[in-house]
Amino acid sequence: MATKHENRFANMIWAVTEEAIFKDEIVLDFHSFVRILSGEMKVVQADQSYTFLPGDTILFPRHQLSSVIKKPRDGKPYKAIVLALTTAQLQQYYSKTTFTRPLHYSGQTQPLGSHPLLDSFFASVIPYFNLQDQLPLTIAQLKIEEAISIIRSISKNADAILTDFSDPGKLDLVAFMEKNFMFNIPLEKFAYLTGRSLSTFNRDFRKTFQMTPQKWLTHKRLELARFQIAKNHKKPVDVYLETGFENLSHFSFAFKKQFGYAPSESI
C-alpha cells in the first residue's frame, strides 16, 4: 500500500513508500528532485528507460511523460524523498541569479549520480518528517534554494531545464502521439501537451487518424505489447504495465479480443 508523508512545508517535499509493486503515469506541472532511499524505480519514457536504485538522485523535468514502476528490492519497500521545484520558486531564484541562458534543452530525465552535496542535502531533510509543527517558511525557502544551487553545480543541463517556464506549444499530432501512445494519461493531458484544448484535440485526432483517440490508443498499445512478447520474448506480466494497461486481466482480455488468442500464446 502506498503512503505519502508530507513534512508540512507547503507541500514542497514529501516521502513516498510503496510496500508492493506500483505503477503510475506522471506528467508533472513542476520539476521534481528525487532521492531513492530503498527499493527500485524504473522510469519508462518514449525513447529511453532508466532503473534507479538506493542512493540514486534524479531530476525530473516538468511536462515530461513517463511511466514510473516502483517496487520493493532486497526485502525493503520502495522509499523516496521528493522535492517539488515549482515555476514560481524557480522564477524567484533566477531573478536574483546571474547566468547565461542556454540555447538547448533536451527535456530528458537527468540522473545526477553520486555526490557529497546530494548526500548532505537529503540527510538534512529527513529529520523534518519528524516535526510536529510547521517548518518555518524562511527555512523552507532556504532548502529550496539550496537544492537548486546543488543541482546547478552538478548538472551542466540544469539551467536549460530549470529556466524553461513556457507552456507547451502546438505540436505535430502524429509525431507526438506515435512517440507517446504508451502513456496512460487522461486525454486532457494529451491535449495540453500538444498545445490544444480538449475539443480541438479530439477534432484534430479524428481528422488525422480516422478514429477516436481511445480506440487508436488501445490498438497501438496492444500492437506494441504483441511485439514485445513475440519478438523480444518478454512475458505478459512484464509487458502490460509498460504498454499503458492498468492491470493484467484487462490487458489479457483486450489482447485476446483484438488478436484472437491470449498473450501467453504469443511466447
UniProtKB/TrEMBL annotation:
Annotated Gene3D superfamilies: Homeodomain-like
Name of the protein described by the UniProt record: Helix-turn-helix domain-containing protein
Entry-linked SUPFAM superfamilies: Homeodomain-like
Record keywords: DNA-binding, Transcription, Transcription regulation
GO-annotated molecular function: DNA-binding transcription factor activity; sequence-specific DNA binding
Domain HTH araC/xylS-type as annotated: residue spans: 171-267
Signal peptide start-end: none
InterPro entries for the chain: AraC_XylS_family_regulators, ExsA-like_N, Homeodomain-like_sf, HTH_AraC
Native source species: Spirosoma arboris
Domain of life: Bacteria
